[in-house]
Specification:
Blueprint lengths: L1 H7 L3 H12 L14 H11 L3 H10 L13 H13 L3 H6 L9
Helix pairs in contact: 1-2, 2-3, 3-4, 3-5, 4-5
Length: 105
């Protein structure tokens, strides 16, 4: 949340520094992206800085494709993918990306 606040305030360097600190926290290997939002938030910060190619590479490295059927635990990642597709002017591919299912709880 602090990284988002710093980004909103125009402090991109501070936002990336905060994300870097969050990445130092060790999580259980059984953790899902739902429990570890840091990688997706870093990707969103990269995209906000105009690093479209690097963010697209991040999405590819995470195994995200526009033709996938998104799952709820990876919803944050697929939202980043949708933003990457829009930033890359591939609106048709972004529109084909189905919405992840709603929280079952």
């Amino acid at each position: 949340m602090l990284a988002r606040i710093r980004q909103t305030q125009g402090d991109a360097v501070g936002a990336l520094d905060t994300i870097g600190q969050a990445e130092q926290v060790e999580l259980s290997p059984e953790g899902t992206p739902l429990l570890d939002p840091v990688p997706a938030w870093r990707a969103r910060l990269m995209l906000a800085r105009g690093e479209v190619a690097a963010t697209a590479q991040w999405a590819s490295g995470r195994g995200l494709e526009a033709d996938d059927e998104p799952s709820y635990p990876r919803a944050r990642e697929y939202l980043v993918l949708a933003r990457v597709l829009l930033a890359g002017h591939t609106h048709d591919r972004a529109l084909r990306l189905p919405l992840p299912p709603a929280d079952p709880q």
